[in-house]
Amino acid sequence: MIIGSGAREHALSIAYERSPLVKEILATPGNDFMIFNRDKPVAIDKNCSLKDPNSLLDLAKKYSPDLIDVAQDDALAAGTVDLLKHNGFDVFGPTREAARIEWDKAWSREFMKRHSIPSPEYEIFSDHWKASDYVEQVYDKDPTKFLYIKASGLCGGKGALEAVSLRSALRIIREMADFEEAGETFLVEEGLFGDEFSYFAITDGTNCRFFSSAKDYKRLKTNDAGPQTGGMGAISPTLITRGLEEYIQQELIQKAIDGLRQEGNPFTGILYLGGIITPKKEVKVIEYNARWGDPECQAVLPGLKDDYCEAVLASLEGKLNEVEFRFNDKVRVCVVGVANGYPYDYSENIGNKIVGINNARSIKGVQVLGAGMEVSFDSTQVSGGRLLSVVGEGEDVIHARERAYKAIKQIAIVDEKSKVLNGEFYYREDIGKKDEALYKPGLFHLKK
Predict the structure, then answer these.
(1) The domain that contains 390 carries what CATH number?
(2) What is the extent of the structural domain holding 81?
(3) Number of structural domains, the chain?
(4) What CA–CA distance (Å, rounded) separates 84 from 66?
(5) Would you say 93 and 70 are in contact if contact means Cβ atoms under 8 Å apart?
């Protein structure tokens, strides 16, 4: 039983499906597209809320799954793992207290300070007037200062906002109230310039096994313009972490796992590191998440050659070091297609038809993973903002990009007369472009 609804959960269902240990899969609430073209039975049940652990417990009691994977941040923050474990289920994912490293960014920054994990300088506020006084002092000293102002709670990846002037900083501080409870406490952090990356580990609370590196593209528009989103694409592996892997794994991930255990909240599950490499080659933590990233999961997980379910079970048994954990030498580029208006109001697109998905899927080395789509009879319609992920896999970044973009160009949103609505289906055109510029034959073909 996979708890979540997006393309990330679709990718997870495929990883579990590959395991000979798995016979059936339930996704809750899931999405309509997950059940098609499967080798094993996959079902969805939408009668739940990710913010209501009791509704998820009801479904667990109804279906009696042998394993439950809590893959979504709201469900983790609500204590779903704790409740399901208390009721006798085998559950993969951190407890609510361990997942605090994600759902309480203020606590997370203090945790990093306690354990000497490199991270930006910051101040924590719950009083808007004090925060305004603070940024006024900052900009008095340096009118060109770059800051991030972040809601401490969960905001679907949209709670971190850039300030490049006193005026913008004061406006964003006022906007923290728009995030309601999630923005009651917020951080003012130094802005860092550099290359951002994502890194993932599966852990049993002590031992870690590391996945291939990735790069996530958060901004809506090409060349990192526009507002923050839940994610517009990803590439894995990424060249920008080359030569820094051991430092990242030990100093930024293993330290966090050890620190959580030492503080009495051992972390079992997937720990996600969002990091940055500065021009001075300093590596710092932007954030931790307590689960797979979306869309990084879609680009990283297909590269695992071994049995993902076996690794998950070993994690629950504290035997993670006993399983094979190898990766292929392919590169994957994930491009996210969204409805026009995302990440704000895309309501005018709800119900419009999506066409061309089968054409995209027919291209060699391509997967199409569903998210904000509703399927009825032979028609697929818009039901959310982020519609789907198209993943191209290739021998190198050039071929992976070619396949991903050739596929996503087959897809369009049309009106009731099947006329293409230009501009209503949108995607970034530069996913993986920087890695392509850095690429030299052989760089990705390293022994893992």
Answers:
(1) 3.90.600.10
(2) 2-95
(3) 4
(4) 12
(5) yes
